[in-house]
Design goal:
The strands form six sheets. This protein has a seven-stranded mixed sheet, with no helix packed on it. A five-stranded antiparallel sheet has the order 20-28-27-23-24. Strand 25 (about 325) and strand 26 form a beta hairpin. By secondary structure, the protein is mainly beta. It has five helices and 28 strands.
């Protein structure tokens, strides 16, 4: 073979990480798209050629105007000059793929001096992807492949940080072990409140010595956009739930006045709702107890705070109620409501209150706060998928 000066071809790779020696790395069993861009040409537009040298690794080349070059000595793919191509690499073993540049001639390819090497490894720590809870709560699931020394250290943990600086931590011992694409991985889950649909969550995985292993940024809206862009991969119901979730988040942001310059882009139209069947019932013959009102709590699942004035032993649905004090008021907090149409019974001596999330909505409809009314309608539509 005749050497061709390296300056004739420059192959730039994007989409793959590099190790300390400059090799591009990909984990065993992993599939990832990466691009090779030929940004120089030879002999007035002659094509550069890339050959996958390793025979054990499947390399699927998908590119427009790609021509297959068949030589008696080599089988290679011709890449046009000044063009970006995407190659899908599926690593099936710990191995090395070497891509070499060539110049096709009338007989045999002529080797160029530049190589691209992709090394597959078995112990890589990598974020494989995300999923979104579509079962009533609002949560992002992070799928990570972890090396043995990382996964076996009980102090390994992931920190999720919101734009306002609040954070939460999940340790690897609390992550769910599963398989993704045939690989063992760990699922770390971060719950998101309704008003944070568009908020970018920063996640950082730390090893047991607090060294950063993996970092990423993601949002609920970003995954919903992925659902909308891939209708063949999701059912119609899943798509509708994603839209209802964003609509719920849109009006939560409006009601709380939070991040209103970045509202969800895709929402569904609101429908009028009759909440009167959920009107609260209050049988009060106890002069020492008075129901003051309720407050809405929106975390990954909605909740209510019920405020009472006076002294009494309170029961919630027949069991002793857990109460807190806020100033002069006794408060019962009902958290993580799965079905917003559920009615709850608060009882005391000569006292009975029946109240639910949609009782709060019924009261809201009598008021003048349009954002709150719209939020209640959006909550009703979202809840309808999980009754």
């Amino acid at each position: 073979y005749i050497f061709i000066e390296e300056e004739y071809f420059t192959l730039n790779v994007t989409g793959l990480a590099q190790d300390e020696e400059g090799n591009y790395v990909l984990n065993k069993g992993r599939s990832r798209d990466f691009t090779i861009n030929v940004d120089r040409h030879y002999n007035n537009g002659s094509a550069a050629v890339v050959e996958p040298v390793s025979k054990d690794i499947d390399v699927n080349v998908e590119a427009t105007n790609m021509e297959f070059y068949d030589s008696s000595k080599k089988q290679v793919y011709i890449l046009k000059a000044n063009t970006t191509y995407t190659l899908k690499h599926i690593a099936t073993s710990t191995d090395i793929i070497k891509f070499s540049t060539w110049i096709p001639t009338s007989t045999d390819p002529i080797e160029c001096t530049q190589d691209i090497t992709v090394t597959t490894t078995t112990g890589e720590n990598e974020l494989l992807g995300y999923s979104l809870s579509l079962s009533g709560d609002i949560a992002i699931h992070y799928y990570l492949a972890l090396a043995e020394d990382i996964s076996s250290d009980s102090n390994t943990h992931m920190v999720f940080t919101m734009p306002n600086g609040t954070s939460s931590t999940v340790y690897v011992k609390d992550a769910v072990k599963t398989k993704a694409n045939g690989m063992d991985c760990y699922v770390f889950t971060h719950k998101v409140s309704a008003k944070n649909m568009t908020s970018v969550v920063s996640s950082t995985l730390y090893d047991g010595e607090n060294n950063v292993v993996e970092e990423s940024e993601y949002s609920v809206e970003k995954y919903c956009d992925y659902i909308f862009a891939h209708p063949d991969s999701f059912s119609a119901k899943q798509t509708d739930i994603a839209k209802a979730m964003l609509t719920y988040g849109y009006y939560a942001q409006r009601y709380f006045g939070y991040n209103t310059d970045k509202l969800p882009k895709t929402i569904s139209p609101l429908q009028d709702v009759d909440f009167t069947p959920y009107a609260y019932q209050n049988v009060d013959s106890n002069p020492d107890l008075e129901f003051i009102g309720a407050r809405l709590v929106l975390t990954s699942k909605p909740g209510l705070k019920l405020y009472f004035k006076g002294n009494a032993d309170l029961l919630l649905n027949g069991s002793v109620a857990s109460t807190t004090q806020e100033g002069a008021y006794t408060v019962i907090t009902i958290s993580d409501i799965d079905d917003m149409s559920t009615m709850y019974m608060v009882m005391a001596d000569s006292y009975n209150l029946t109240y639910g999330m949609f009782s709060f909505a019924n009261q809201a409809m009598k008021g003048t706060n349009t954002d709150l009314k719209n939020l209640m309608k959006a909550m009703y539509a979202y809840n309808s998928y999980f009754k």
